[in-house]
Amino acid sequence: MNFSPRLRFSALLASVALLAGCSTSPISRIDANRAVYESWPIEMQEAVSSGRAAVGMTPEMVEMALGKPSEVNSREGKDGPEEVWVYKKSSSMPSLLGNTGISLGGSIGPIGIGTGGPARRANPASTDEQDVVFKNGVVIRADPAP
């Protein structure tokens, strides 16, 4: 089957929207664990509900605030072992038309003159990264959200 470019583009956008809907928000994670959330100190509850990690949080609190990390790394800190939770988030969607060219031209009679070249992306996709560092099961450093 050969689908039109417009239909393929619409299907791609629908897929992206569906995948974006799969991520959970702090509120939905709080609702799923309301009793645990309400047992925490108010400053931790405020951080979790605003979707940020704070010094003194436990892994459970961070996961409720930010979700599951993209990766977890262990490293040796100056005072012993540390665990780093890395959260990666793409700040913009890669160009769907990355291989599309733009051309301009005109013609007079049967002769055409034109120029063309590849489309330029003003803002290439980038990945924002946030690190949350744990020592002995407690956050000792949390980068601000990008």
What does this structure look like?
This protein is of the alpha+beta class and 146 residues long. A hairpin with a 2-residue loop joins strand 3 and strand 4 (111-118). Residues 12-22 and 95-100 have low confidence and may be disordered. The strands form two sheets. A four-stranded antiparallel beta sheet has the order 1-2-5-6, with helices on one face. A two-stranded antiparallel sheet has the order 3-4. The chain has helices spanning 5-20, 26-32, 34-38, 42-49, 59-66, and strands at residues 71-77, 80-90, 101-108, 111-118, 127-135, 138-142.
Could you name the key traits of this structure?
146 residues; alpha+beta; four-stranded antiparallel β-sheet; 5 helices; elongated
How would you briefly describe this protein structure?
The chain is an alpha+beta fold and 146 residues long. 30% of the residues lie in helices and 33% in strands.
Topology:
Elements: H1 5-20, H2 26-32, H3 34-38, H4 42-49, H5 59-66, E1 71-77, E2 80-90, E3 101-108, E4 111-118, E5 127-135, E6 138-142
Helix pairs in contact: 4-5
The share of residues in helices is 25-40%
Structural class: alpha+beta
Which parts are unreliable, with pLDDT below 50 for 5 consecutive residues or more? 12-22, 95-100
How many alpha or pi helices?
5
| Overall number of strands | 6
Residue fraction in strands: 25-35%
Main beta sheet strand tally, sense and closure: 4 strands, antiparallel
Query: Shape, please?
Result: elongated
Placed side by side, the strands forming the largest sheet appear as 1-2-5-6
